[in-house]
Every structure is written in C-alpha cells, then in structure tokens.
Design goal:
The complex is a heterodimer. Chain A is about 70% helix and about 0% strand. Chain A has three helices and no strands. The longest helix of chain A has 29 residues. Chain B is of the alpha+beta class. Chain B has two domains: about 80 residues, Alpha-Beta Complex (Penicillin-binding protein 2a (Domain 2)); about 325 residues, DD-peptidase/beta-lactamase superfamily (Beta-lactamase). Chain B is about 35% helix and about 25% strand. The chains are: A mainly alpha, B alpha+beta. The interface between A and B is medium-sized, with 21 and 26 residues.
C-alpha cells in the first residue's frame, strides 16, 4: 500500500508543479497589451508623419509651385532658343 | 442478471452515441459559428479600407495621391453643455454654429459632424478635451499639381453605399484597379477592453489599390496647359484642346482641354466639364481631314502629288449645291501638292470623287473612323458612319474636305500618327505601367491597330504636309529650323441644318521632326472670336508648343 501512495503524491505534486510553471511562463510571455498598443500607436504616428512630409514635399516640388517661385525670383520665359547647327572648330589652323 | 448487463451496456452505448453525435454537430457542423462566438468574446471585427492607388506621370511624380484626413463625429448622449460645445467646435471648424448644434441635438449614439479635417484642426479639437467627440481616420485624394490633367484624371466621388468610386477619365476607367479590395481584421482586447495587439490577422485579403504610371510627361503637360489657357483667353475662344502623342508607340504625352475643373472640388463645377472633350466630343474636322482622304487616294494610286485637277478653276456644283473654296480663290490645273498647300476644297472634291464612295468608306474604316480607338479613358465615343446606300453625291464631295462627317479629336490624332509612323496606326494609350501593392510592375505594351496606308504613301503624304507648312497660309508661324509636317483646319459648325459662317472650329495638326517624328500634336479652338481661321489661332499655338517640346527633347534643328 506504501507504493501507490507515493506514486499518487508524486503525480499530484507534479501536476501542481506544472500548473505553477505554466502560470509563471504564461505570465512572463503573455503580450503586454499596453506596451503593444504603445508600439502600435508609435508606428501609426510615424506613418502619419511620413504621409504629411510626403504631402508637403509633393506640394513644394510641383511644377505649379516651382513656376510661381521662379516668377517670384525674376525668371522669365525664354522666347528664343540658340542652337549651334554646325560644329565650331576649337582651334584654327594658321 | 444477464438482461441487467445488457441493459447497462445498451444504455452506455446509446449515451456514448448521443455525446459523439453532439460533439460532431458542434465541432464539425457548427464549427464556424462557435469560432465566431469565440472571436467576438476576445475581439471585434473591424473593416480595413484599402488605400486608393496613386496616379503618376512618367517621371514618377504623383499627380493624384492620398492624404490622411479625419471625420469628426460625436456621441450626443455623452456631450454635455451642447450649446457651448457647438460654439467652440464651429469656430475651429470654420463652419456654421447651427449645423453643429443640430447634429449634437440628435438622439443618436453616432453622428458625423464634419469630414475632411486636417491634422491641425484635429489637434485643435482634441485640445478642447470634450467628452463624446471622436475622429475617424480616412484617406482622401490629394492633387499636388492641382488641376493639372484634370480632364484626363477624372475624379473620385462616392457610390450608392458611400464608398469611394472613380468617375470619368482614368479614375473611372481604372476604378477597380485603383480601388483595391476591402478587407476585415480582428482587433483583440483584454478583459478590460484594452487592445492587446493591433490586429490578430487580416481576413478576406485586403489589397491596397494599384498605382498607374502614365506615359504623360508632366513638363509637357504643364507647358501645354499653360499655353492653351493663355491662347483660349487671347483668341476669345469658348474652349480649346491639345493632344500630343508619340506616333511610334501610341503613348499619349499630353492631353488637355480647357476650360477644366478642379478634381478636388469637382462638385463646384458644371457637369459638362467632367467629360474629356478630346475623346467625348464629335466635331466636323474641316481641312485637317484632307490628309486622310488624300492618303487614301495616294495609297490607291488614284492620284500622285503631280496629278492636276481638271475642274478646280471655280466653284463646283454637286447634287444641286455649289461648293466653294474657303477664301473663294481658285487655282485652275492645280496639283495635288498645291491642293493640300492651299487647302483647296475643289481639289479635294476631285480627290474624293476620283477615290469613289466604296474606297472612301474602306479607308474611313481602315483609319478607324466610326470605331472607338480603345484609349484607356472612360467616356470615349465614336461617330456613326452612314451606310453606303445613304450617301449622296454631295456627301462624298464634302467629306473630301472634312465637312458633313464627324470625328473625335483622338481619332484624328490617331490618323495623323499613322501618317507619321510609316502608315502603322498605334492604339492610343495613357497608362504605360501598372504597379501593384507589392511593387511589381506590369508593362502595357504598345498595340498596333492596323496599317491603313503603305510606308511609301505615308512618306509622300508627309512631304505634301511639309510643303503645306512651308508654303501654306500658316507658314508665317512655322519654325524655320525644323522640317515639320502639318495642316490647318477651319471647320464650319452645323447649327440647325445650316453652317454658321461666323463660328468655326479652328485647328492645326502636325508632327515633328517630319523625317523622324517624336510627337504628333493636334490643337483645336472652339469658336474663337479674335480670328476664326486655324492658320491665325491654332497654328501659332501649335508651333509655339512644338518649339518648346523640340527644345525639351533636345532635338537639333533639322534644316
């Protein structure tokens, strides 16, 4: 009768031990809701900031913006183009 | 005692079967239902709206992209001191107090206050720290180049369910590609309702919209729009259009019509401006149609450039109508080259009659007149060409000089592309690449529509058009350093069965450089009032734009 008691006690202790270990491990590795939410928020923040910067960049590099800025700086539209139709000698033989 | 064992055995077996059956029912038959209940206990299904694809010009600059905007909503049951809140919110939103106040007075849990708010306004309202107000994040279309290429782009409105939908132009034609696919996700929360992780998993395969990369050159489009709007004002025209195409590939380089609309505030403009007149408007092309008829006659060897017109010394009577030249000047024994040079209507009557009705209809069909070009824009129309037995003698004669027959500007541009491209007609297309949400690009290859005329005929026609530019009525405006082929057009407008002599459609179509064309361009002005002729309005604009494009492409003078 001694052996079954020992076996039973061992099984109960093992079960309790496993439950405790499981609880501890679960607690340790379970995702921390607040931290994850914060990370997620941060990611969203940078995503939005990138979008806003992109928007700003496109608005400033648009041809509409460039042409109005160019006019403000005094650039005017070229009316005539000058093209060299024949190659010019770089040195004349004397 | 045996029956008792049997009874117990049967009872256990039956009980086991009942349990097995119930297990099967819940685990297999109702598995998805249980799974959904389970999901709802720890999470909430949320809809994932895809971001609409961008539309980029050939330099990969987005002319239609997205920006984040916010919808301000309220739960009126949570808002206290509603009058004060309405007053403060209306001030920040720059909107009427009454509209905010009415929304807050509703007996609902959720009411929208104002969509389309930017980050600054959102922060300003958040700083008020008013309980019961919240924001919903959305994407809305953003146009960095404002109304550039608006008639080409179309706009994004709402469908019956309030979802984004593209209308007209590219937004309409490629709506499904640009829209992407709506998906759903599970937002998990803990026992206190705090989010544990942003999303458990994507369900239903949400797909972001694909991007469209156009063949449109942003610089040329900008240049064309500026010159066109200036010219419409200068010539007092009711409107104008310019189309520029690469004849070798059929890729549209620029396409513009004026007046236009702002795609962001499309609802503030007349609906007539939404459609792209370049593909949706039919008009009688007038003299710009003559090269098509002449090409057909050359290709059929009915005439040569040196063929002389035997009856061009005065007006010609056909079917009871006296048909004149545009300026009532007549050139007896004129050659076909001179017919194009002088834009001689009587000469073209001779060509049309020499070609014959059957061949005329064959070539109209070969050049795609009366059929859609298939350009990838929503709203293209095509004219109805009368059946052969409905044509009168006068119809054939007037068709020779482009009256009594209608085309769309894109059809005429395509016809000239064929002449410029050794007789090979390419399908016009605006989108050159589609890029999916993973960055993979699919090229849209150029497509040949047909070969209406031979290379030799195209070359002869090109020489006749170069002669027309150099010696015709628009020669004063030409670029002397380049060989350019082109033709003016001044078409009368039919009003209630008659032509109004004071209202015209002035146009010029041509290509440059003539021997190795880099572009074909069509310029049209609708009812110009300062001058009614194409040579005085459309031609100078054509050459002005052509000069800048040649310079932009760094093409050296050809003569």
């Amino acid at each position: 009768m001694r052996r079954p008691t020992l076996i039973l006690a061992f099984l109960i202790l093992t079960a309790v031990g496993l439950i405790v270990v499981r609880a501890a491990v679960s607690n340790a590795i379970s995702p921390n809701g607040t931290v994850l939410a914060k990370i997620s928020e941060e990611r969203e923040f940078y995503k939005k900031e990138n979008k806003a910067l992109r928007e700003d960049l496109f608005a400033k590099t648009s041809l509409n913006s460039i042409s109005s800025e160019a006019a403000r700086f005094g650039f005017v539209e070229r009316k005539n183009s000058f093209v060299l139709t024949k190659p010019l000698p770089i040195a004349l033989k004397r | 005692m045996t029956w008792r064992y049997k009874f117990a055995f049967i009872t256990f077996v039956l009980a086991f079967l009942v349990v097995a059956f119930r297990l099967f029912y819940w685990q297999v038959v109702r598995a998805s239902y249980l799974s959904e209940i389970g999901r709802n206990q720890y999470g909430q299904e949320i809809k994932v709206f895809p971001e609409r694809g961008e539309i980029l010009t050939s330099d990969l600059f987005p002319i239609a992209t997205n920006k984040v905007s916010y919808l301000l909503f309220a739960n009126p049951k949570e808002v206290t001191n509603k009058e004060d809140v309405a007053l403060r919110v209306a001030k920040i939103l720059d909107t009427e107090y009454a509209s905010v106040s009415v929304s807050l007075s509703l007996d609902k849990f959720w009411v929208p206050i104002k969509p389309g708010l930017n980050e600054e306004k959102k922060e300003a309202i958040e700083n008020l720290k008013i309980p019961g107000l919240g924001f919903e994040e959305n994407y809305e279309r953003f146009y960095p180049e404002a109304s550039l290429a608006a008639s080409l782009l179309g706009f994004v409105g709402k469908d019956d369910e309030g979802k984004d939908k593209g209308y007209f132009g590219l937004e309409g034609y490629y709506n499904r590609l640009l829209s992407g696919k709506e998906g759903s996700a599970i937002q998990i929360h803990d026992a206190l309702g705090k989010p544990v992780i942003a999303r458990l998993k994507e369900e239903g395969g949400a797909l972001e919209g694909s991007d469209l990369i156009l063949s449109i050159d942003r610089s040329i489009q900008f240049l064309v729009e500026k010159k066109l709007s200036d010219a419409v004002e200068k010539y007092g025209a009711q409107g104008g259009m310019v189309g520029v195409i690469d004849p070798k590939t059929g890729k549209i380089i620029a396409l513009s019509s004026f007046p236009t609309f702002d795609p962001k505030k499309y609802y503030e403009y007349s609906q007539d401006l939404y459609k792209n007149a370049f593909i949706s408007d039919l008009y009688e092309p007038g003299s710009t149609f003559k090269p098509l008829v002449m090409s057909a006659a050359l290709n059929e060897r009915k005439v040569t450039p040196a063929t002389r017109c035997p009856y061009c010394g005065g007006p010609i009577s056909v079917g009871g109508y006296d048909l004149h030249t545009w300026n009532d000047k007549y050139y007896p024994n004129t050659t076909m080259t001179e017919v194009i040079q002088h834009s001689d209507n009587t000469g073209m009557i001779f060509v049309a009659q020499t070609l014959g009705l059957e061949k005329m209809l064959t070539y109209l069909d070969r050049f795609g007149i009366g059929r859609l070009t298939g350009i990838d824009l929503q709203g293209e129309v095509s004219p109805d060409i009368k059946p052969e037995n409905s044509w009168y003698a006068a119809d054939l004669a007037t068709a020779g000089f482009g009256q009594g027959i209608s085309v769309t500007p894109v059809e005429l541009l395509t016809v000239f592309s064929a002449i410029a491209n050794k007789g090979i007609m390419m399908k016009p297309q605006v989108v050159s690449q589609v890029r999916d949400n993973e960055g993979r690009t699919v090229n849209i290859e150029p497509e040949i529509m047909g070969k209406p005329i031979s290379e030799a005929s195209a070359k002869v026609m090109t020489e006749m058009l170069v002669n027309a530019v150099n010696k015709g009525e628009a020669s004063y405006a030409r670029l002397k350093d380049y060989r350019i082929a082109g033709k003016t057009g001044t078409a009368s407008i039919p009003i209630q069965g008659k032509y109004d002599p004071t209202k015209t459609i002035a146009s010029f179509v041509g290509f440059a450089p003539a021997d190795d064309p880099k572009f074909v361009m069509l310029v049209i002005f609708n009812k110009p009032s300062a001058a009614i002729y194409g040579a005085e309005t459309a031609a100078p604009v054509f050459f002005s734009i052509a000069r800048d494009i040649l310079s932009y492409y760094k093409i050296a003078p050809t003569q």
